[in-house]
Amino acid sequence: QFEEFDRVFEFPLILQTVLTLSCTFSHEHQLFSNHKHYHHPATILLGHLPINPSHLRAYIKSFEPKCNHSKEDDCETMLTVAKTSSLLNLFYNAQAPRVIRHISRPPSSKTLGQEPRYNPLGIEMLPDRLHKQVFGCEGDGVWHIDQPNRNNLAKCIQHLRRHDLLPKQLSEIDTVYEYHKHLSNTTQDVTEKSQTTKTVPGEVVIDIPRLEGKDINEHFNQLGRKYSDGYKKLACDIIKNGSSIVDRMPKEWVSKSGWTRYEPKADGNFSISHVDSPLEKALIFDVETCMNDSVEHAPTMAVALSEKAWYSWTSHRLFDDRIGCDQQRLKLQDLIPFQSSQTEEKLIIGHNVGFDRSFLRDQYTLKETKTKFLDTLSIHMCICGLTGLQRAVKLAHKRKTRDEGSIDPEEIEGSSWIERSSLNNLADVYEFHCGKKISKDARDVFISGTMDDVRENYQSLMTYCADDVKATFEVFKKLFSTFSDRFPHSVTLAGMLEMSTMYLPVHMNNWSRYIERSQETFDEYERRLSTALQDLANDACSMTEEEYLKNVWLWDAERSTQTIKANKSKLTAWEKSKKSSGTEDVDCLDKQVQDIYDTKSFMRQIPPFLPGFPKWYRDLCCPVSKAHALLDGKEWQPGPCLITTQMRITPKLMRLTWNGYPLHHHQKHGWGYLVPNGDLVAEYNGTPEGHPYEKFPIDELRKLCRGLPRSPILIEEEDDLREDLLQAKIDELKENTQSSSPNLIRMLKKFSKKKKISARFRGEYCEDVEIPGAYFIRLPHKNGTNFNVGNPLGRDFVAKMEDGTLSSLDNSLANLLLRHSLSLSYWKNNQKRVRNQMVLALDDNPELGAILPRVIVAGTVTRRAVEPTWLTASNQDTTRVGSELKAMIQSPPGYCFVGADVDSQELWIASLMGDSYSYRIHGGTGLSYMTLRGSKSEKTDMHSKTASLIGITRDDAKVLNYARIYGAGQKFIERFLMNTNPNLNSEQAKEKARTIFKETKGERKFRSRIYWDGGTESATFNKLEEIASSAEPRTPVLGCKISQALEPEQDQAKDFVTSRVNWVVQSSAVDFLHLLLVNMKWLFERLGIEGRFSISIHDEVRYLVKEEDKYKAAFALQVSNLLVRSYFAYKLNMRDLPISVAFFSSVDIDKCLRKEVNMDCKSPSNPRGLKEAYGIPHGESLDIKETLRKYSGLDLGSLHRGRPC
């Protein structure tokens, strides 16, 4: 390497030039001249120059064309200076711990422009060329890459070393300089080794389309305005001009199908005309549907308001009985026409407008139009939305106010937020913002009435619909300017408009087949389940009384029976008749049979149901006379045909256990389990007569639990005797001593000790349930210890069935029932929502259809989108019926889905905030370093580190880490640890929780203010809490303001500090999504991609794209991720980005929606998989290198002309 250096340069000349240029580095000289490891820049250059010879030759060659001087000496001098400055530039770019100024422009060579570049912590950053394209230029070709100063870098390294995060080979390095020296000598070796095994970020060669503006900040400002200004103008126009129209509502509506326009005239009348669709570009809109229409989901009537006129729409089904009299399925012709355009911007405003959108005919076309939707419910949530807990409190407050007329101010002291928001329905929102009320009584006609009822009340119902439109207009007028002030960045509005146009294509036959197969499989599994349950019931019914009393589950089952009773007068008459005919031959068989038949003559007219059978069993059986009402159309059968997993007797028949302890139901406390407590004194004394647990089989309980590990419920105490020896002593005393002997009691107390309840379980422990020798512990409820569990076989306990916590005692049939119940859980909980999907076949191809998800684009206080089916759909599970639901969203021929999951989105956002707060270097905090350099396979990522720290699984650690990032406290961590590890006692859980918080969040300190210190996440939480506790909390990137109901000044009691911290992270993630959507819209236009936004689920986005444009769309996603992450860094004053987060780890190209492109989505209802059953092949997953290779066929020159700088 140095031989090459000597061959190219005249050594004395380069030395002279270096010394001449040393003044350029005078600042560095002042910083480091007193350091023992300091070397003059010239010495560093000559002694430690880490430059590849091939790159050096390319540098020299790149400067030679610039020598056009006539004098050869001048040319040689200029060339030498240029060469030297470029070499110094290369060296300091890798090593200097401060701001670097490039003396000359980097060469134009693509290869050199993509040379790997590392920050002082060894984290690879964007290559020079890409960095300049993203972050732009400053001044005359001079650009900056921020680096920390020396002191900050030293602190940063010390912080990382303290948490054992630096590479082991650096453990002995004590100085900043030696760290850099080691780094510069090793990074190239590491890169060369990596190139032989996997795709290296440093290999990325990419040019991106020129940004809209001089830098990334201007780029997103311009994009936001480009995609929102037109719609914002439409909104402002209808607010301004619609005020004169809204109060001039028609008093009579034209009873005619289709659209009717009512334009007010100066004389107070209306110009009424029939139109194909509304003429104006902006509308306030509301739809009403009759729930009992024979065609499900068909819209019945609608009203719209524009800046010039009112409109009404009526379904042809309401007035023309001849149309669709035999129709059963909804068609596009039944929907509302609107005549959307692909070139003209239109805006529809409504309250929960996603519902209204699903009834617009032209929204089902495959090609996207420029009609967008603005939701007043979402705007209300953004401005003054409530958290789940606040909503519950607000609802209780509303009920109490309604019942009592007023509330004592002291009851809401410190909670002024209650008066700063409302519930989300239109009536409450209208009353809160406008101080007026609207009647919703007429809605009952649409809910419970028929189409005839709607016809009879047509005028009043149309007025009711128009009143909703008027209320929506006034709410929108009140809120829109406030929304613009609180959410000032235009990208927020543009992103919400884009989110309002979700579109899910389906194949109609495949959709129908999925529902049919899921239902058939469900019915078959349910039949097997019912048969197995009936077998359990029949077996239990044959038990003797003694067996009942020894059964820990069924000892308290209601065993009363009914007997056959005769009519006394008829019986007397029959007996007399019998005596009078006593001379007949009684040995005749026919006569004996006839006598039995004759007994019916003296039986009561209504005999008892199943005489002789216990009551619990009779309750499971269905009389023939009640079969139609009780069996819901199913065929009657003898025996316990009514039994289901929802019945209280079922867990008892299945002999369910919780970690081996038998389940028990208490009338007051719901379901729990029984744990022997060793209180032999109470056991011996027994219970008074009439006590509910007088006959409880404590001996059987103790035998049942004898082989179990010591329960974490009980505080560990050393017994005086082993349990089996102790019981032998007790039995001996019982045999030889009178029960009343005081000596016996003293002996019992000597030999036994009642075990105490662990503090962890005191919330679940029910002290008022007095069972001699046992504790009753309630099952954990998802909402906390104040709630009872109603059914241990419900959906909330599916995970406990899977991990074996909830099981059955040595009963293969019962365990089979558990597995069947688990298989049925998904379809049981989702079939109604799936069947209620509004699926419409397309006019041009009836085999294809579409679903418009009824999304509330900002349905939570953090502005996350809400939708009950598609945004909550879980991934396919091989054991659950119908779980392949998402895969039924299938692209039409010629199209495919292109999408990606944002890698560790919220974790990265939180870590970036910590970096910006502390040393302003990527990877400068422990959390960020693990996020950027951590490896799951090497167990150096955040979740693996946490798992190793306290001895839990990585999956549990992942849940725990995200909970902490969202603001969960130590108490939550303790409960979480004890729930995931039943053998952990409260003290151990508390110690582990302390360890986690000390290592991660750090310790609370005070220096002019309270702050966190010493943990890997201290800087992150300091930043989050700084934002959350500010007077006006806003997201750091788009400046979105927190809901009024969560503002610090409205929370004097500080009940919602955690919610505000959570809001900072999650609302920033919504900013990320909005930026991504807007940038993708720009790239679709810029690159000529034919497609549309399909759906966003949590941190994933999917686009529906033409097959020929799929690689363009994949490239667009990668570029969008790069620009959005760079914009986040830019807004947090960090003008650089690690390449490890710059691109998606993979972009999926597929024919359906599924978690992984190679999943075949097999399930009980789809045993053959997608490929065989539906003809859907595996998709392809592309990393950035493969994306660029696939995309390389495009002529980039025309797309990327005019590169910045």
Automatic annotation (TrEMBL):
GO terms for biological process? mitochondrial DNA replication
Keywords of the record, alphabetical order, are:
DNA-directed DNA polymerase, Nucleotidyltransferase, Transferase
Domain annotation DNA-directed DNA polymerase family A palm: ranges:
882-1109
| Any one cellular-component term (Gene Ontology) | gamma DNA polymerase complex
Known EC number? 2.7.7.7
Q: What class of enzyme is it?
A: transferase
Highest taxon in the source lineage: Eukaryota
Molecular function (GO) terms for this protein are: 3'-5' exonuclease activity; DNA binding; DNA-directed DNA polymerase activity
InterPro entries to which the protein is assigned, alphabetical: DNA-dir_DNA_pol_A_CS, DNA-dir_DNA_pol_A_mt, DNA-dir_DNA_pol_A_palm_dom, DNA/RNA_pol_sf, DNApol_Exo, RNaseH-like_sf
PANTHER family, sorted: DNA POLYMERASE SUBUNIT GAMMA-1
Question: What protein am I looking at?
Answer: DNA-directed DNA polymerase
* Species, as recorded: Aceria tosichella
